[in-house]
Amino acid sequence: MEAARHVISAPVYTIGELAREFEITTRTIRFYEDEGLLAPTREGRKRLYRRRDRVRLKLILRGKRLGFTLGEIRETFDLYDQAPDGSRQLRYYLGVLDEKREQLNRQRRDLEDALAELEQSYQRCQELLARQEADKSA
pLDDT per residue over 32-89, tens digit each? Predict the structure, then answer.
């Protein structure tokens, strides 16, 4: 009697499934594919994305939210592909993160300054309006 074989297949996702999961358009996914960041297999005209593509899409979207360019994301993927141990990729990524952190800190300081100026203008307008209303009622 021959033992039954159990084949466990890796999950496969369609472009529509990924678009719904990540709340993006299929056009966006195709764009990332055109940029060489995703590499689905094809079954006729149907694109099939593997777990690797799903993870990469998640990383692309996270990178974009953090202000990474597609070039920086691509370079990170390329470094990972070249050195799966990740040390070179991690050093590069740490450098990019340092730059992004500094950029965000500058933006935060600019926002804090702008909010402080806005608050001063708001207070000044309230004072002027209160003074005008007091003059009218006197």
Answer: 999 999 999 998 989 999 999 999 999 999 989 888 899 989 988 887 777 666 677 7
Phi, psi of 94 (to 5 degrees): -60, -40
Report the C-alpha gap between 104 and 94 in whole angstroms.
15
Break the chain down into helix, strand, coil percent, rounded to 5.
Answer: 70, 10, 20
Asked whether the beta carbons of 35 and 77 are under 8 A apart, the reply is no
CB 43 within 8 A of CB 68: no
Count of C-beta atoms within a 10 Å radius of residue 88: 12
